[in-house]
Predict the structure.
Amino acid sequence: MSRGVDRREFVQFALKEGVLRFGSFVTKSGRTSPYFFNAGLFNTGASVGKLAQFYAQALVDAKLPFDMLFGPAYKGIPLATATSVALASHAGLQGRDVPFAYNRKEAKDHGEGGVLVGAPLKGKVVIIDDVITAGTSVRESVDIIRAAGAEPCAVLIAMDRMERAGPDGALSPHSAVQEVQQRYGLPVVSIASLADILALLEHDTEFAEHREAVLAYRARYGI
């Protein structure tokens, strides 16, 4: 992966691991989607290790200055941890050891206490998550990082659904990713996007039958 992230390879990897599926799925927003992406299903050592290499490569490709990683509870915790490990052996960082931190959902009132675990938050901090839907996780992370005196500098996600929020007839003008970029002034880096899923559907005969449904969904909700 030294030549940059192969977005199609990532989509194929997600399909192989059952993280990306085609069919009919009801999302949290109540929409019926022809595809489903759940990074929580990367749940073995080998799959999370490979996922972390994709995250690390996407971050290196972005050429953004950063000092450390932050993983919002809960999905962001293993993602930030594994990505930090992958970055430690990435040739592009020349042996640099990247610290990471994450938060608890509830403050601990004994031991070291507080809501933060890991390295002290300082410098430029990359927030790592699986997807951005309502942007709640990003908002909470930005607040935590700024409260610690550090600077959120980017958000790194696995999949950009390129999808607008809101009820039918009153859809937001921008996607969740675009909203985050505009609201916080943060670049959002994704390993892959809905466009990459469609590219695979166009060229892979095994899954071609799902292309029209995904195109129709994008026409209705996409940007």
Observations:
- The domain at 7-221 is CATH 3.40.50.2020 (Rossmann fold).
- Helices lie at 7-16, 45-62, 76-88, 136-147, 176-184, 194-203, 211-221.
